[in-house]
Amino acid sequence: MPELPEVETIRRALKHGGRGAESIVGRQVLESRLLWERTLAEPTQIEFQERILGQGITDIDRRGKFLLLQLSTDTLIFHLRMSGDLNVVNENEPIASHDRLWLGLDGGLRLSFNDTRKFGRAWLVPDPHAVTANLGPEPLGEGFTAHDFHARLLAHRRQLKPLLMDQSFLAGLGNIYTDEALHLSKLHPLQISDTLNETQSGRLWSSIRQVLQEGIERQGASIDWVYKGGDFQNYFRVYQRTGEPCPECGNPIQRITVGQRGTHYCQNCQPQSS
Question: What residue ranges define each of the domains in the chain, with the CATH number in brackets?
């Protein structure tokens, strides 16, 4: 958390305006301040401040859970990790208690990277591929077909839940949307990937895209103090609904631990294959 829909919501707000703030596209960086040294993964603090000043923000992209701010020369990349967020505020507002990095922009705006748990990271690089090279395909990308997905599943022999959350296999899925997609596709989280037939993998491919698109439409899920503004949490099928009735069959939702992550599913709708 945040996952693809939450990061995409932030991207759209930064690019087009939203979440109570203006767009930052077209703004120039006039000032920078690093408040937590480890937030900056690359380059050094001195080089960062020298290079970023004067650059304009030309576009805002996303790759998996990474936010990419395209600048005049470089790309500024953020990974929000567990508790990160990017906020656009008026330059006169006080620095928030958990702001780790901020940029002063023309027009009296400030872009702040707020990260309570200090796990988030930022990179200023000439080529974003240096940071994102190991990511798997975009699940909502036009090139991500059901046929390709089936081939990728057959190329691994792993439990579905941890495989789908592996960012080198597929970019953007986390705990929430993996549980939701597996329930929608009626597949058990422990089923082995190379046992899926083409019909099952096609159903999973479609379910992944459906839950991500719905998550984006609802501006993500707000389930704790980290990310606020979305309402997808009001439409969860299984995630964090332990003991509540399955929306399909009425049986109680179960919770197990898979790969050290809490996993929610319906025993009746998602039977485990022998």
Answer: 4-132 (3.20.190.10), 146-265 (1.10.8.50)
